[in-house]
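Example 3.2
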Amino acid sequence: MSQTSQKNNVLIGKTFIYVLLGAASFLSIFPLYWMFVMATNHNSAINSIPPAMLPGNQLVTNFTNVLNTIDFFGAMWNSLVVSTVITIGVLFFCSLAGFAFAKFQFKGKNFLFVFILVTMMIPPQLGLIPQYFIITKLDWLNDLKAIIIPGLIDAFGIFWMRQYISSNVPDELVEAARIDGCSNFRIYWNIAVPVIIPAFATLAIIKFMYVWNDFLWPLVVLREESSQTIQVALRGLIDAYVRDNGMILSGTFWATVPLIVVFLLLNKMFIASLTEGAVK
């Protein structure tokens, strides 16, 4: 095969890959764009055939209707507090547990780790009634503690951290630190934590998005409007008689913005965690 033919094959292959990536990117971004378009148009433009495909001039009007219907900023603040506190708690406690499972030897270690993995197979809906009973006994209804405290530990977080620490923190480095007189917590804080920053970023994105989008449990325990998270508050935009899609999608769009910001902030570290194994 001539050199020209090889170059043509390489060019065709690269073109195919870029076209495929472009199509995938378009399919991923289009729902967000479509949500923004509906958030900026009047309800009649959304329901027309064909529907509006370009942004309109109703963005401020639709968002004003959202503010007049629900306590949008109060619900956003509640979600931000809950998601941030739970994410920080999960990163700390799950990394501690993962470090212990990865680098310590203790009786029942394998059994406990398998038990944690088994809990990942249980649907969270099965624990709804006993959790509600406990929250009621603690008098935590309509309190953000009912969301925060049960979410501070996560089985997937322990599994993720254990696997990452096992493959990225050398045992020899841990043993050397012990010989130098470091305590277990200092080994974790000064040796393990700097190495697992990419794992932190990945778990933070996953957990923040999960907590922010959670609807069922906050709906059960947060009944007062002042304590509701954004997903529960958005339900109040749906009227039984008049459905204003522009207003609904306006509230949904602005409720999605914090997720985009968090992903952009942690994007580089997230990609680093995905490519680190390939670089090795």
